[in-house]
Amino acid sequence: DAGVIQSPRHEVTEMGQEVTLRCKPISGHNSLFWYRQTMMRGLELLIYFNNNVPIDDSGMPEDRFSAKMPNASFSTLKIQPSEPRDSAVYFCASSGTTREQFFGPGTRLTVL
Amino acid sequence: GENVEQHPSTLSVQEGDSAVIKCTYSDSASNYFPWYKQELGKRPQLIIDIRSNVGEKKDQRIAVTLNKTAKHFSLHITETQPEDSAVYFCAVPAGDDYKLSFGAGTTVTVRA
Asked: Can you list the residues of chain A whose pLDDT is less than 70?
């Protein structure tokens, strides 16, 4: 089992650019979560999918953020346009029937 | 969402001593209480969890206790070792689905 896979692992971009983060959940898991982690705000849930359907996006900071899950094995989180305050580590996690969430290695985003 | 408070925010212990972290929650219907450990630069990983039908669960040097009446649960680490140094997060379910609300985290430092 490869676990949750995220790409890229590091992303450095300039303000105003579009950023796309990618996630492949564990096969068979039907829930997928996107989190953002910063020193100031801790671990924040951005959006949650169940069976590829967005259930709760109340944590998405603003319209610049969007997420999709076109199928059970792939999800994207897009930021357009990016701003320096978006700099953070973005984690994707998935869970099955046991409620345990398995986190990916994260994407460290730096917006200059 | 579910409100969860975690204390202390930082904890420094001498190697071999015990460490205790406490979390309080507000929703009396919560029935699942996990603890995650995040080492520096790594992803959060589940280390132990407890469900509401038991008051205590132990796994080698770590244990979790639950007081449903008082709505708090605690992580206990005995005989601490340098590899226990990490940030520890408690979490509680946020609603009827599979979302979790995470505490702010406790940075544990084990002094050799």
From this structure: 1
